């Protein structure tokens, strides 16, 4: 399981460029579903027919895309200017390694050296338009041999296991959700399952709305990697989630309010099956539920998330037991949707 997570997180899948991730998932689920197709916007949807007579359709949803960069200008000196794709805190970018384009050209995010900065520059957070990507090119012509305008960039970050059951990787948001659905598809269910791996969540929940309109499910569960703020300098009452306390069940966030009946069902199932869980305490941010729950006549929706520290960075961190608990809760939820 960790090996597949490594492949998924290290793949290039910035919003609008999810093809590499999609191919990995397509290969993994092809033997687990009865039908598989890609819609017009790029969502990958796997259909698994239920074994029972219950006509209920359950949508399991996770997004394939990640935050990253897109090249917007090549300077005369060969440095690359870029725009952020998705929500990235500029303060985490300086000196980070990146990979550009389909050939994964290596580069480093840089700014003017501290020795050359004015005093005011040293005390203010660096903005993205002050940064550049250095790929070692000598000139614009040299850079254009390997990089084009519109090329995507990702963090150059490998999965690492460390500490007591901790995993560091980029794009845990939301390759953990993708892998959780893949694992859930290995079980048999009475209900028809639509496994939806969506595109462009990080730039506006775009793929999810298309997928929900097409599938028209009775129930939708979104599986996410969410913020975890149990770190130094944050008061406990401000923790969004706590690492090691199990999957987080959302009551509401900035994009949706979960169906209260489904929230109760999730909690009842977790307590009955002995699955450790927590309630997500933060109400900011959002995920694909924001687009799904208002699709067509409205869809009963719930969200289960894996707590991830340092989200939207090259070094997100999760607890493997939280992830395993999420997979178990997803499986038991689908079985319990009578």
Please tell me about this protein's structure.
With 338 residues, this protein is α+β, with helices and mostly antiparallel strands. It folds into two domains: 232 residues, Aminopeptidase; 88 residues, Elongation Factor Tu (Ef-tu), domain 3, CATH 2.40.30. Helices cover 26% and strands 25% of the residues. It has an eight-stranded mixed beta sheet with strand order 1-2-12-3-13-16-14-15, with helices on both faces. The protein has a six-stranded antiparallel beta sheet with strand order 5-4-9-6-7-8, with no helix packed on it. A three-stranded antiparallel beta sheet has the order 10-11-17. Helix 1 packs across helix 5, helix 5 packs across helix 9 and helix 7 crosses helix 9. The two termini are 29 Å apart.
């Amino acid at each position: 399981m960790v090996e597949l997570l490594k492949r998924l997180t290290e793949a290039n899948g910035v919003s609008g460029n999810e093809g590499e991730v999609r191919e990995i998932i397509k290969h993994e689920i092809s033997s687990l579903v009865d039908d598989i197709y890609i819609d017009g916007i790029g969502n990958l949807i796997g259909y698994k027919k239920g074994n029972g007579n219950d006509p209920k359709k359950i949508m399991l949803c996770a997004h394939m895309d990640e935050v990253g960069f897109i090249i917007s200008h090549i300077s005369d000196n060969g440095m690359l200017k870029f725009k952020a794709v998705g929500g990235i805190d500029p303060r985490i970018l300086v000196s980070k390694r990146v990979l550009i384009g389909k050939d994964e050209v290596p580069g480093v995010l840089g700014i003017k050296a501290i020795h050359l900065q004015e005093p005011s520059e040293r005390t203010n957070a660096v903005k993205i338009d002050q940064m550049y990507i250095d790929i070692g090119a000598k000139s614009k012509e040299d850079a254009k041999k390997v990089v084009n305008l519109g090329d995507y960039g990702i963090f150059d970050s490998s999965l690492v296991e460390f500490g007591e059951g901790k995993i560091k990787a980029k794009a845990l948001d939301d390759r953990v959700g993708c892998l959780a659905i893949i694992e859930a598809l290995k079980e048999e269910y009475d209900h028809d399952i639509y496994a939806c791996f969506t595109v462009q969540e990080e730039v506006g929940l775009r793929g999810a709305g298309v997928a929900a309109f097409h599938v028209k499910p009775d129930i939708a569960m979104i599986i996410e990697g969410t913020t975890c703020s149990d770190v130094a300098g944050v008061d406990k009452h401000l923790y969004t989630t706590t690492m090691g306390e199990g999957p987080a069940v959302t009551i509401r966030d900035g994009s949706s309010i979960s169906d209260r009946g489904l929230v109760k069902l999730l909690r009842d199932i977790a307590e009955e099956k002995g699955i450790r869980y927590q309630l997500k305490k933060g109400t900011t941010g959002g995920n694909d539920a924001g687009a799904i729950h208002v699709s067509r006549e409205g869809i009963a929706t719930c969200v289960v998330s894996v707590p991830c520290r340092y989200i939207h960075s090259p070094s997100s961190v999760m607890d493997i037991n939280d992830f395993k608990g999420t997979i178990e809760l997803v499986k038991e939820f689908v079985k319990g949707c009578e």
